[in-house]
Amino acid sequence: MTNDHTQPRIEKVTINIGVGEAGERLQKAEKVLESLTKQKPVRTLSQHTVKDWGLRKLLPIGCKVTLRGKKAEEFLKKALATRNNRVAEWSFDKQGNISFGVSDHTDFEGQKYDPNMGIFGMDINVTLTKPGYRVKNRKIAKNSIPSKHLVKREEGITYLTKRFNLEVV
């Protein structure tokens, strides 16, 4: 019998599309994200000015959506299905979180290619935590998390392998 408070869980799934420019292409990327997640995306802004790339600080260059709870799990199942439930081992970080990319949004079930929209790839980041991690981020009585309660890389791999029938290569 295992303690439920020692088992990892999905805190959030963040989907990011980086376009590199503001304008019509960014609006199309937002439409793609909204159709995939049924949630309104937020624009991401550039952090630096790079004159060679024609990039100014605080210029909108992408969009992202953060999913939590049931929506996050459902989207993650669809996203992993586009990769045939296979992810490289180096996609996991030390905290058990996973990041992977999908090169074409039309790989998702129900999405069709539209020549007016084009093709958008995206980065998907899954953050894993254990129950009680809120202690670190809350405003009142904030405290640190002991290392034994943090999610380890092996725990993240094991959790996702069992829960989503994931194959780590």
What is the CA-CA span between the terminal residues? 30 Å
What is the makeup of the main sheet?
Answer: 5 strands, antiparallel
Low-confidence stretches: none
By CATH, the superfamily comes out as Ribosomal protein L5
CATH classification, class level: Alpha Beta
Q: At the third CATH level, what is the topology name?
A: 50s Ribosomal Protein L5, Chain: A
Overall 3D shape: globular
Number of domains: 1
- How would you classify the helix and strand content by structural class? alpha+beta
The total count of strands amounts to 7
Strand content: 15-25%
The CATH architecture can be named as 2-Layer Sandwich
Radius of gyration: 18 Å
Describe the structure.
- With 169 residues, this protein is α+β, with helices and mostly antiparallel strands.
- It has one domain: 50s Ribosomal Protein L5, Chain: A.
- 24% of the residues lie in helices and 23% in strands.
- The chain has three helices and seven strands.
- It has a five-stranded antiparallel beta sheet with strand order 2-3-1-6-5, covered by helices on one side.
- 22% of the residues are buried.
- The model has no long low-confidence stretch (mean pLDDT 86).
